[in-house]
Amino acid sequence: MGTHYRNFKTVVYIPAQIAEKFTAQKLESDYEFLEKYIGLDKVYLESHRGDCDVSNEQLLMIKSFLEQKGVTVSGGITTIIEDFDGAEKGKRRLFNTLCYTDPAMRLRIKEISENTARLFDEVILDDFYFTNCTCERCIREKGDRDWVTFRRDLMKDVSKNLIVEPAKAVNPGVKMVIKYPNWRESYHYTGYLPDVQSDIFDATYIGTETRSPAYADQHLPEYLSYSLVRFMDNAWPGRCGGGWFDTYQCWSVDRYLEQAYLTAFARAKELMHFQWSDLIDNPFVCAMGLQLGKIDKMLDDVSIPSGIPVYIPHTSAGENHFEMRLGMIGLPTEPTPTFPKNASKLILTETAAGDPDIVDKLAKFVQNGGDAVITTGFLRVKQEELIQSGLTESRPTGKKYAVTRYHITGDEAGYIENKSPVLFPELVHCNNASWSLLNGGDGDLHTSIFLRSAYGKGRLYIMSVPENDADIYKLPTAVTDVYKRTLLCEDIDTYISGRNCSMFAYDDGSMVFYRYVKDDLKPDHVRLHTNKKASILKNVTTGRTYPVHEIRFNEDFEEVTEYVADAVLIPGVFDLYRWE
Ligand SMILES: [Zn+2]
Questions:
Q1: Could you tell me the distance, in angstroms and rounded to a whole number, from the CA of residue 140 to the centre of ligand 1?
Q2: What is the dihedral sign for C-alpha 304, 180, 61, 10?
Q3: Is 379:392 a contact under the CB 8 Å cutoff?
Q4: How far is the CA of 524 from the centre of ligand 1 (A)?
Q5: 9-300 — its CATH code?
Q6: pLDDT at 253 over 80
Q7: Which fold has domain 505-579?
């Protein structure tokens, strides 16, 4: 695909302020560093950001230098700007994003788009292309519309009439790319519209910078670096250009690298390293080159990513990132903005309630034989419709249980005591109208934390989400194994019994396992389970094989047969496995 790697291109972004200062000598030495350590296939060279407009002469000097080295050079624009003569003053523009109702700003962004398109055959918009303006003029122009609708209309107009069409008028062959930020759940509040803009822009790109999950502004699970690439690939099939990560708040080399691993495991076509000057003389970059070579070799042997479908309609929010947290406990998930009506298994979080027809779709899905897992957040929002449909009779009461004890019902040894407390919502249900597969309690009381009912040919499961979503990581492995067994299907016939690890599944049966460098920082025993007959488990990366045992046990009053193999996962090491 690139000149340095077979499975992806290595790409670096050059912001305007960096481009402006380049001398030929500095460019040469920086280039040598990047070429030596990560191998440079492509750069996005920015013409405008904030108060900086790089002269065409300087942009052409850099472009020509890099092209002579065999590097592809595309353009970039960051749509932030300082107050300037002619524009209305005194607006409280967070991050200096543009006021897109201001005539002078509209004219200015059109000129920037045209100028950049004259110089480059591909132009990407950095993810400040949102609107948060609530100035007097924007309030007036909004009129009776709500803010989401107003911004939707506004940014459709801006995208078409001020960005893409003017660019194509000066360079008919230019490919216009919109990069979406790592905060999908807020897109519709800020005028980002992947469903509308897919008809306007040629391609998209996605932010996969997860940084420090506990401290970063967007508090993102690490798995987002995989999950959002998959979401955009499903939203704009074949037109997601790549994933974009940076060095910020990455306080260890592993945390930095994990962003690239997961972006690549999702099969992003370009790995965008933001940004040029942060990378120079940075030891992260030295390690990156080594690891990119290993990823590339591993990806030679895997096909298309696969996972349990999670329906994430556009213009939706709620229990944000919970499906990614399931990815962090080893459940491979595949987010999609299209309701996956032909799948056999499905996960719906509160986010899915953004689709006004969701309960009808869900009822048909289950009635036709599908198994759907809904969360307590989804139940809370849709409880009246769900009860009316007959899918469930259960309700959250609003009370909370600090769960220290777990009971896997139907498992003769399924009793787990004295765990650190995790706060769960109380769920009431009618005994024997539905059946609890997992109970969580303290003292003499418990509540169901995983409930099943039947409907038509299929089944509905309700998964309780802890009050702190991230507490899902604290659940005992035997408990999360119940979720994973429930979600086994034709595409995902394996689950990993382990903690603090992810499974990346591919439709040729390949499985990549990765243990995160965090929390309990040591190697860990894991058990891989499959419901398909297997003779050995092979670590394709090392060549090592593991014996497979057949086990039988009771769960939910039925005997289950599984083929299992034990392996060890080391933090920071990814390996490819297959059953044979
Ligand atoms: Zn405004």
A1: 9
A2: negative
A3: yes
A4: 53
A5: 3.20.20.80
A6: yes
A7: Immunoglobulin-like (2.60.40)
Yes or no: say if 548 and 565 are a contact pair by the CB < 8 Å rule. Answer: yes
**Alpha carbons 326 and 224: distance in angstroms, whole number:** 11
CA atoms within 13 A on the CB side of 543: 0
Instruction: Give the separation between CA 544 and CA 522, rounded to whole angstroms.
Output: 21
Q: Which of 383, 493, 487, 481 has its CA nearest to residue 428?
A: 383
Distance 261 CA to ligand 1 centre (A): 39
List the CATH code of the domain at 306-481.
3.40.50.880
Ligand 1 centroid, distance to 203 Cα (angstroms): 27
Q: Is the pLDDT of residue 555 over 90?
A: no
Which residues have a beta carbon within 5 Å of ligand 1, which is an ion? Answer: 99, 133, 135, 138
Residue 164 CA, ligand 1 centroid: distance in Å: 21
Separation of CA 580 and ligand 1 centre (Å): 61
Q: What percent of the chain has pLDDT over 70?
A: 100
**Is 571 in contact with 513 (CB distance < 8 Å)?**
no
Going from the Cα of 101 to the center of ligand 1, the distance in angstroms, rounded, reads 6
Residue ranges covered by each domain of the chain: 9-300, 306-481, 505-579
Diameter of the chain measured on Cα atoms: 76
Cα 135 to middle of ligand 1, angstroms: 4
